[in-house]
Amino acid sequence: MKSDRYAILIILLVLCSGCKKKLYNLVDNYASGTNDSTINMSDIIKEEWDTMFVFPPTSNLRPRFQKYQDIARRIVFVKGDHIVYQEDEVAVETAHKVTFDTDAYFFTPQTAIFDLQRIESGNNGVIYFLHPTKKE
Questions:
Q1: What is the tens place of the pLDDT at every residue in 71-104?
Q2: pTM reported for the whole predicted model
Q3: E-assigned strands of 44-100?
Q4: Less crowded by CB within 10 Å, the N or C end of the chain?
Q5: DSSP state, 49?
Q6: Distance of alpha carbon 132 from its chain centroid, rounded?
């Protein structure tokens, strides 16, 4: 009986692991539905968050969020002390990806506004470059 429950739990976890939308899909869906060249991350990440971190690889700024430190830029959305969304932008060539073109690592919902640049990549893919909007 217990093994049946574990099997069902494992099947549900595997099925739900594909439910999480990757940042690329969220940005692509947003960009496909608008002609706007600016993107507000509050429109992309629907969970409530108060801080967005964009940690570069090998950053010593992310001891709480360690994982793949040497090869990936980590994007983390936090509400209080809890992570509501995270994703690693691994520095490899892929046909479809989002890359943050910034040296900044800390954004709030009011400052996480980016100019969106869509570049056709090889393999019929698209790369979205997100540049922080210039503040006046």
A1: 567 788 999 888 898 887 665 556 678 888 887 7
A2: 0.71
A3: 51-55, 72-79, 82-90, 96-100
A4: C
A5: -
A6: 15
